[in-house]
Structures are given as C-alpha cells and as structure tokens.
Amino acid sequence: MPGSDHSTGGVRRSGAGRASRVRPYAITGGRTRFGHVLLVETLVSALNRPAPAGGGLPEMDAICELCRGHMRSVAEIAALLRIPLGVVRVLLGDLADQGRIRVHGTPGEDGDGDGTPGSTANRELLERVLGGLRKL
Amino acid sequence: MRKILIVGAGQSGLQLALGLQAHGYDVTVMTNRTADEIRDGRVMSTQCMFDTALQHERDLGLNLWEDRAPRIEGLGVSVAGPDGARVVDWVGRLDGYAQSVDQRVKMAGWLEAFAARGGKVVVHGVTVSDLDYFSRTFDLVLVAAGKGELVSMFGRDASRSPYDAPQRALAVSYVHGLGPRPEHDFEAVRCNLVPGVGELFVMPCLTVSGRCDILFWEGVPGGPLDVFDGVKDPGEHLRLTLELMRAFTPWEYERAAGGVELTDAGATLAGRYAPVVRRPVAELPGGGLVLGVADVVVANDPITGQGSNNAAKCAAAYLDAIVGHGGKPFDRDFMQAAFDRYWDGAQHVTKWTNAMLAPPPEHVLNLIGAAGQLQPVADRFANGFDDPADFEHWFFEPEKASAYLASVAPQA
Ligand SMILES: Cc1cc2nc3c(=O)[nH]c(=O)nc-3n(C[C@H](O)[C@H](O)[C@H](O)COP(=O)(O)OP(=O)(O)OC[C@H]3O[C@@H](n4cnc5c(N)ncnc54)[C@H](O)[C@@H]3O)c2cc1C
User: Fold this and answer.
1) Alpha-carbon distance A42 to A21, whole Å?
2) What region does A105 belong to: left with phi over 0, alpha with psi -120 to 50, or beta?
3) B268–A4: do the CB atoms touch at under 8 Å?
4) ipTM of the complex
5) pTM for this prediction
6) Inter-chain contact A8–B44, Cβ cutoff 8 Å?
7) Closest partner residue to B121 among A7, A12, A35, by Cβ?
C-alpha cells in the first residue's frame, strides 16, 4: 500500500504526527488510568505470592523465577527467556493482576519526576537497562 | 471464563471488546497507542455512521457522545456541471439521524471505559510471533488492526477484489467556522460529485474541540485533486483544499467565506489505499488460527462512508456468533461462519462502493437526476447509506431502476 501508515488506517498523515509515539507515558505505581503500561525499560520484580490454582502458564512461572530477588526490565525478560516482547507484556500484565509481580514503573515517573529523557533518574535507568542487556 | 484477545483498539476492536466484557468474557485488548496518544494524535477518518450502526453502539451503551454530536438528518448530492454550476442538487431525508464522532474522541474514551470496567489493555504493536503464542493461550484471537501490516497474514480474495490499486487519493481537513448550506435548516452530509475529477464530502462532526465540519476530497489518481502527497504543513493542506473547492465546487467554497481554521494541529490526513476483501482466517507459523475483523477483512474505499458502519456491523455479528457458540471450541469452521454472517450484509456495501468508484452508467445518472424531481428517490438514496442492501432492488440494473422510477413518478 503506497503511502500507507498502519496507525492511521492505511492513510499517511500530513504534518508531524510521529513524535507522539515515543512520548513517555505517565505511570503511577505501575498503573495508568487504563492498566499497566510496560515500556521496554519498565522494571518489575517477583513477589512471594503463589500462582492461583490452575492459573500458571509455564512462561509465567519462568518470569517469576527470573525476577525473584532481581529487578528486571521488560526487555531483559523477553531476551533472557526468548519470548516475543508482546507476549511478555501480556503475561506481565496478568502476573501483576494476580499480585505475583510488582511493576516499579520507571524511575523519574513513579514519584514527582516527569520522566523526560535526560533527567538524572532516566540516565540511571538507561544505564541499568543497558547493563542488564550487556550481561545477556 | 473464556479468554479472548483482541488486537487493535478501533471501532470494531473496542466495540467487540466492550460487548464481550459486558457478557462476562475475560478480554485483553492490545493496541499500539495509548488513549492519550490517540486523543492527541491525527484524525483517522470522517467516520460518519448511520442509524443501524449507531444502534449497535446504543445496544451496548456505548453512545457516550450522542447528545453532543450534531444530528445529521439528511444526505445531499450535488453534481458539478461546466462553469461551476450545479446540474443536480438535492437532499434526501434520513429516517434515523447519522452522526460523526471523531475517532480520536471515541476510541480514547472507549479504551478508557474498557479499562475502567476491568478490561486488560496492553500497549504493544503486535507482531506475528506474538500471535503465534497467543493463538495457543487464548480461546480466541481476533485481529482488528485496521489496514496495518498484520493484514498481510490474511490472503487477498481476488474473486471479491476487482481493484488492485487505489481508486482515489484522499485528503481530509477538520475545520471550525464553516457556514451552513443555505438550502436547508437541518444538518446533512453533502456529497459533491465532480465528474471525472472526484468528490468532495462535507459533514458536521464532534471533535476534541467541539463541533466542527469535515472537508474531505476524494480525487481520481493523477487528476487535478491528486495534489496532497508530500504536503507536510497542515496549513498548506487546508489552503489546497479550499483552492480546489473554489475551482470545482464554488457553492461549497462560499460556506468558507467567513473564514475557516483547522480544529487542531492533527486535523489533516492524506493518503490512498486499494480496496480489498481478504480471507477471514489466518494460519500462523505454529498452526494456530486467528480471525480477521472489519477493515482487516473488508476494506472498501471511503467514497460511500461505510467502513465504520461496517466495523460496527462486523463487531455486532461477531459478538452474536461468539456468545451463541457457548463453550465450544473456536475452530476454523466457527471463524468462517462468523465471517460469512458478516459478509452477508457487507457484500452489498462492497458491490455498491466499487460501483460508485467507476464512472456511473446511464441509468445511475438518470436516478441521481430524477432524485432532484422526485423526493422519494432522494430519500431512498439517502437511506441506502444506512442499509446498502436496498440498492440491490433499484440501483444496479437498468430494468429495476426504470421500474422503480415508474412506480414513484406522478401518474400522468
Ligand atoms: C479518509 C477516510 C474517511 C473515512 N470516512 C468514513 C465515513 O465517513 N464513514 C465510515 O463509516 N467509514 C469511513 N472511513 C472508514 C473507517 O474509518 C474505517 O473503515 C474504520 O475505522 C475501520 O475500523 P476498524 O476497527 O476495522 O479499524 P481501525 O479503526 O483502523 O482500528 C485499527 C486499530 O488497530 C491499531 N493497530 C494497527 N496495527 C496494530 C498492531 N500491530 N498492534 C496493535 N494495534 C494495532 C490501530 O492503531 C487502530 O487503533 C473512512 C476512512 C478514511 C481513511
């Protein structure tokens, strides 16, 4: 489809519309007004809560195992477990709903920080994520 | 509780998600944009919806903007002759009103409502490898991702897709300040046909900043209206739109005499796509199956303003099919049957829309002309936008057209 753009139903937008795609989301305690927004750099860790009866996919258990005692980024989890990123996002959402993981949001967004790139908190975060990725 | 995954937060995906949620299903919606990104983004459509489609929204309590959106009570057709005169000019009355609620307003609001009611929203641009996994872990996966790249999983149905290239270049502007058409005191969609050149649609809408009007040019590719590609500046896009109105539809240009301005920075859209019907069931590399919804499976040109209407009808048909299926597995037969149920109505839309893209045959010109003298013909044409299956009875074949005209013509 020439001149097509999936976000606009196959129609290219005029003007500068792309920037909004990479804008950081506002997160409060790991939840937005509409559920968990999990960026690749969002950090999660496992809580000591058992899987609900019949509700544990092997991948979910593997994620909890990986995040026990470690804060891991969404990107790290996908890479370490070789699970597609979209799958990790869905499973993390379910795990958070079940109370099996904590979503820490990203430093700078949790508290009063504004999450803009370049803030100290964000630089720390990026280094952390990069460090995590380098260890893979 | 049956687990259902819906990819795409547009008209069909969210209507279906909210409908299934109300029936107690465990629904996850995956979307590549957050509600705020949708609201702050670009316009996506002109999204004019007629009564039957609006009723599907009402049935689910999703008509959240009905009181604020302009009520469109008529649909008019003007045909440009030489010298900027109109050779045809009429308006038909709709039995039930139509409305256009900016998809930025509606989809952002619906997505938030779905989440507030406990629905799971995952922000992620879904890929085929994601789906491969989901087709095993969800009871049913529905792909309602519009015309995005995921459609390539669904094979093109050549027998139902007469065109393989875009038939119109599209250019949309949302404006404040447009005056009314002086001929009538109710709101109407105005279709202005410029033979050989294209069409201008003008309609009222509710957008982020309140009531507005949409100017929508559909240009024959390579023709004088096909000038919007590469225009980056929204102001320039509007200037071109108005310039073309002055040249081809001066009666609509007059409505802008008081000065119009774009509603916001994201008020313009340009592009083109080929109309296509696809096979409804896609098989993933791992053998799982997913069912396509609305534009994914039937994407008509917007010349007849039917895509959102179709999306609402598709979502309603699939909702019935899913609920009616109870606890049985959602296998290939189920998926094909659900689509067939939708296609039963959608085929008429595709046939009519594809016909409107081609130069009109003699008997259609006669019908459009006759509507200027015979109000019942104008009314029937207008209401065909609500129920396109009706065109089958009087529009496509010359014999049926003349029989119909004879039946409504005053007795001599
Ligand atoms: C210029 C124009 C004017 C139109 N005018 C009208 C009109 O007046 N009346 C009418 O009825 N119809 C009109 N239409 C058609 C109508 O807008 C569409 O047919 C309708 O929106 C289709 O609904 P949908 O649910 O199939 O897809 P969409 O509304 O396109 O929704 C698809 C959603 O999926 C998301 N998505 C895409 N890819 C992915 C992915 N990989 N992962 C996650 N999410 C994804 C998108 O961001 C989007 O939110 C018009 C279309 C255009 C282009």
Assistant:
1) 17
2) left
3) no
4) 0.82
5) 0.90
6) yes
7) A35
Which distant-in-sequence residues (6+ apart) come within 8 Å of B41 by Cβ? A7, A17, A20, B33, B104, B266
CB atoms within 10 A of CB A26: 14
Closest to B278 (Cα-Cα) out of B270, B286, B287, B290: B290
- Distance between CA atoms of residues B239 and B230, nearest Å: 14
Mean pLDDT of chain B: 96
Minimum distance, in Å, between the CA of residue B45 and any CA atom of chain A? 8
Name chain B contacts of A5, Cβ cutoff 8 Å: 271
Q: So what's the pLDDT on residue A9?
A: 40
Residues of chain A above pLDDT 70, percent: 49
Find tokens 């996002």 and name the residue: A89
B30 Cβ closer than 6 Å to some ligand 1 atom: yes
Does ligand 1 come within 6 angstroms of the Cβ of B302?
Answer: yes
Point out the ligand 1 atom lying closest to the alpha carbon of residue B12: 25
Confidence band, pLDDT 50/70/90 cuts, at residue A2: very low
Rounded to an integer, the average pLDDT of A123-133 is: 60
Q: Which residues contact A11 (CB under 8 A, 6 or more apart)?
A: A3, A4, A5, B44, B170, B269, B270, B271, B272, B273
> Is the separation of the CB atoms in B299 and A10 below 8 Å?
yes
